[in-house]
Amino acid sequence: MKFFSNSRQFHKALAPWIFLPLFLSSITGLFYRVSKDLLGYSREQVHWLMAIHEGEWLGDNGELIYVLLNSLGVLWMLITGFQMFSKTISFTKKVTKGESKG
Question: What's the half-sphere exposure (Cβ side, CA atoms, 13 Å) at 50?
Fold first, then answer.
């Protein structure tokens, strides 16, 4: 249980490191899809965006690590973020119940 009580500190410590790769992946993925589907660019013209999005520029091993760490980063932020959110909701309910009795 001690691990879950420290999740806020872990979330705060990892967030800056996880932000840049996730931001890079989301922006390049969005621009790739919009450029290809809406603006009519060919796959070859916008492949450089997909190369950045998937981490191809890091080589075969680097690409695997990049994708794996991005995935784990998203899961970690979702789990710890949801946990912090649920603690906030339960605290609000307890305070509201306590105030209504008094």
Answer: 11
